[in-house]
Amino acid sequence: MISGIAVAAVVLISVGIYLLIRNGVFYKKTDTDAKKYSMTWDMQQIVSESDVHQGYMFSRTLKLTSEDRLMDPWVLSWYVIPGTTRSVPEMESAYVDSFDQVLLLESYVKEGNRSKAESLIKAIDESLTNEDGYLLAFRKADELAFGTDRKKAENCDDFENQAYLLLSDPPVSMEATTRYLRALLNFYDKWGNSKTLDKVKALAEKVYAYGDQTSYRAADQMAMPTPLPVTEKSLITPMPEDIAETKPTGSDESADPDAKETSAEPKDQLVSLSGTELSAMDLDAMRRASVLLPKYKAQYEETVRIVKEGKISSELPLYAWMYTKEGGYMYYTGSAGNVDLVPSLYVMVHLAEIGQLDDEGYAWVSQQIYNTGFLYTSYNMMSGDVASDVEASEAYPLVLYLSVIKGDDRLFEATYHAMTRNYATLSTSTALYTFFRNVPESRIAVYARDNLLMELILK
Predict the structure, then answer these.
(1) Which helix (H) or strand (E) holds 340?
(2) Is the model's pTM score more than 0.85?
(3) Which three-class secondary structure state does DSSP give residue 327?
(4) Rounded to whole angstroms, how far apart are CA atoms 212 and 310?
(5) Is residue 274 helix, strand or coil?
(6) CA dist 253 to 158, 248, 259, Å?
(7) Where are the alpha helices (DSSP H) in 63-134?
(8) Which of 16, 21, 81, 294 is 20–30 Å from 357 (CA)?
(9) b/e for 35-51, b at 16 or more Cβ within 10 A?
(10) φ and ψ at 432, to 5 degrees?
(11) In whole angstroms, how large is the CA radius of gyration of the chain?
């Protein structure tokens, strides 16, 4: 009996030591100079007094975009809930967006779910990374379903990222790659070990050695590079020689423009450019990486300069899409001179996190919220007016996070109320407890991106 007790004690002690080692108790972690931003007491009160059920929001999002789709560990980009009749079926995205998976990874790390985080890291490395170690922008869901004979809902190209429809093979995404660097740094800070640190440093080396990566955007058929913007300083961008454009597929120029669309083929053309995509530069992740690898400090500072100087003007303090050494900044890709809002907000967030966002950009965003309560997908570079009637749902979590960084209770409250306009509270709704988008044909779509961004803010 004594022998048995001794063996059991040894086993328990061994297991205890293993768990302590696994959780990094005996490992002296290297400081990555992480900065944390939390909601103020007033912000927490605003959330607690609302109808938002945070825990349910996260689990419901995973159920709709992952579990019910038989796509674990991935989340699909979006899910459209069914209507009340058979003629209005449920729909699901055909794509797994890499940036969404990294946001999911950040959520697991933040809540302390190590097993889920490790599983997702393994899956990302095996299925969403190219041979050079960079994350791909997307993969088709059917390619990641691990051979399961899953029953899929209908697909609809109208709700997809139009650039994905025009690309036969997924390109590198520096946006997802630098965000993955952030997620791995956070993982290391929570459960640090030498293996994770080596992985962080290896990815940081790739981020800093990337050179010019090609990024893609879908644009209208008359897409042209940037003309001279209305501003005091000259920001003329000559037409780059390597602009790649493909003719729109499935289009008929002689067709009646007012006729109802019957083809699911993409209606846009593709514009590509190699250089530094401003919104893809996760500056705080790169700053922390330069702390671990001081040899990149000068390169980090140069990247910050490029991003900061990409602001269009004082009148419209949004940001350029790309920067190339040969051609300078490219501000938009369409024929109407419209600037996409969401990428510019990512730039603002990245600058705010390192204390480099100027007052003009923050004031402009605040006034959009205070004056109208709505944010739209694009604004005209010449006039600064709203250039789209489509609400930019992804913009609200970004502005919320900006207000958290700034400790701005007033902006947080106004933006939170704007975001919760589209929070499902109807008990019979399939989208219950999630943030949704109103999409064409009076449909309701739940996007993984919106809910995961909100999860990171509210958690």
Answers:
(1) strand 338-340
(2) yes
(3) coil
(4) 16
(5) strand
(6) 19, 10, 12
(7) 98-111, 114-127
(8) 294
(9) eeeebeeebeebeeeee
(10) -45, 135
(11) 23
Q: DSSP state, 154? A: B
Angstrom distance (rounded) from CA 9 to CA 15: 10
C-alpha closest to that of 160 among 179, 180, 138: 138
Distance CA 140, CA 144 (A): 7
Distance CA 452, CA 176 (A): 14
Tokens of 201: 């440093």
d(CA 245, CA 269): 6
Whole-number Å distance between alpha carbons of 92 and 326: 41
The residue length of the chain stands at 459
Give the span between the Cα atoms of 138 and 128, in whole angstroms. Answer: 7
The amino acid at 268: D
Tell me how far apart the alpha carbons of residues 140 and 137 are, in angstroms, rounded to a whole number: 10
* Tally of CB atoms within 10 A around 146: 12
What three-state secondary structure class fits 277?
strand
Q: Which of 380, 157, 163, 182 is nearest to 273 (CA)?
A: 163
Q: How many CA atoms lie within 13 A of 33 on its CB side?
A: 13
Q: Answer yes or no: are the C-beta atoms of 450 and 435 closer than 8 Å.
A: yes
Structure tokens at 101: 């998976």
Tell me which H or E stretch contains 6. Answer: helix 2-22
Contact assessment for residue 344 and residue 337, using Cβ atoms and an 8 Å cutoff:
no
pLDDT in tens, the chain (459 residues): 667 676 555 556 654 555 555 555 555 899 999 999 999 999 999 999 999 998 899 999 999 999 999 999 999 999 999 987 778 899 999 999 999 999 999 999 999 999 999 999 999 999 999 999 999 999 999 999 866 677 788 999 999 999 999 999 999 999 999 999 999 999 999 998 999 999 999 999 999 987 778 999 888 766 555 444 433 333 333 333 344 444 333 333 333 334 333 344 556 788 888 999 999 999 999 999 999 999 999 999 999 999 999 999 999 999 999 999 888 999 888 778 899 999 999 999 999 999 999 999 999 999 999 999 999 999 998 889 999 999 999 999 999 999 999 999 999 999 999 999 999 999 999 999 999 999 888 899 999 999 999 999 998
Q: For 158-188, b where at least 16 C-beta lie within 10 A, e where not — what string?
A: bbbbbbbbbbeebbbbbbbbbbbbbbbbbbb
Asked whether the beta carbons of 365 and 255 are under 8 A apart, the reply is no
Question: Helix (H, G, I), strand (E, B), or coil: what is residue 360?
Answer: helix
Is residue 318 helix, strand or coil? Answer: coil
Dihedral class, residue 388 (left if φ above 0, else alpha if ψ from -120 to 50, else beta): beta
Beta pairing partners, 378: 340
Q: Which residue has the tokens 């990409």?
A: 310
